[in-house]
Amino acid sequence: MSERPILVTGATGKLGRLVVERLVAFGQPVRVFTRRPEAAGALFGKTVQIAAGDFGDRTSLETAVRGVARLLLLSPISARLVTDQVAAADAAVAANVARIVKISGSDWTIEPAGNSISGDAHAAVERHLGSLPIEAVSLRPNAWMQVSLANIIRQVVTSDQVVAANLDAGIGYIGARDIADVAVQQLLADRLDGRTLNLTGPDIVSFRQIASLMAAALKRSVAALEEPPQIVPQDGDFEHRAVAQFVRLIAAGRAATTTDVVRTLLARSPRTVAAFILEQVAPAAAVPEYQP
Q: Which of 43, 107, 240, 252 is most enclosed, with most CB atoms within 10 A?
């Protein structure tokens, strides 16, 4: 790698900050593009360059990519995802950036098309990347432990219940730390390992199994209840519609998949659901129940 910085978008989010921390630990110069420069400064101090701006502000975007070696492209689920990420990719090409590593949607939201507005948006960006004269890889993480599984864990801690549309639907959950490690590996590698990489955890775990794992971790009973999935709102905001579609696709078993991509690239096993649950519930399990 050259001494030119790696640009990271979405750097103040759950995943972006992990990528930045790893790049800095490897001694890589890092620039972050953010609408929240104060938050970035609080997180990273003087270990990174901070480029304040917004995807919709062409001048700030062009300034951010100037002199950059490679780009980690990450932005939240929103109606602007395609517009924002295409603008960033085009700016990167114009600035002679050598490589883009995109954090994309889950494989089961993208293929087949038409089942997920979020997946379709990511697919549009992937197609655009494929049309550009630049090295690019799209990472397709399965359901994140730190998002959907963490929500279930919080639900159980407060209610002793796992509620799902299909208790036997399995998910190949992946942890954000494993996603970040693969992203950094692809940013720093001499060559890419394909145009798309489907990232999953090592095993498929159903909601019913999650209830059992939570019961064991908390040392108390946890009920497993089925409820029909919510109706996808046609007039709701983009994110809520997207999440409702995720729930239906997961209930249909679409996320019940595993791959060896993480193990192959990192030469180690990805994090397990059981390990994540134990880490998350340790404080709750340590607090004794109140006895009047």
A: 107
pLDDT band at 285 (very low <50, low <70, confident <90, very high): low
One-letter amino acid of 92:
A
Per the document, the length of the chain is: 292
Question: How large is the average pLDDT for residues 114-134?
Answer: 98
Encoded tokens for 102: 């995109």
Alpha-carbon gap, residue 220 to 160, rounded angstroms: 8
Closest CA to 141 of 74, 209, 192, 241: 74
Which stretches of the chain are DSSP H helices?
A: 14-25, 37-44, 58-65, 81-94, 107-110, 117-130, 150-159, 176-188, 207-218, 238-251, 261-266, 273-286
Q: Are 181 and 243 in contact (CB under 8 A)?
A: no
- Average pLDDT score over residue span 201-215: 98
Among candidate residues 99, 122, 96, 98, the one with its CA nearest the CA of residue 109 = 122
pLDDT confidence band for 289 (50 / 70 / 90):
very low
Work out the burial of residue 249: count CB atoms within 10 Å of its CB; fewer than 13 is exposed, 13-18 middle, 19 or more buried. Answer: buried
Residue 292: pLDDT above 50?
A: no
Look at residues 284, 146, 288 and name the one whose alpha carbon lies nearest to residue 214: 284
Has residue 29 got a pLDDT over 80? yes
On whether the 6-141+175-199 domain is CATH 1.20.140.10, my answer is: no
Q: Are 261 and 196 in contact (CB under 8 A)?
A: no
User: How does DSSP assign 110-131, residue by residue?
Assistant: HSSTTS-HHHHHHHHHHHHHHT
DSSP string, 24-43: HHTT--EEEEES-HHHHHHH
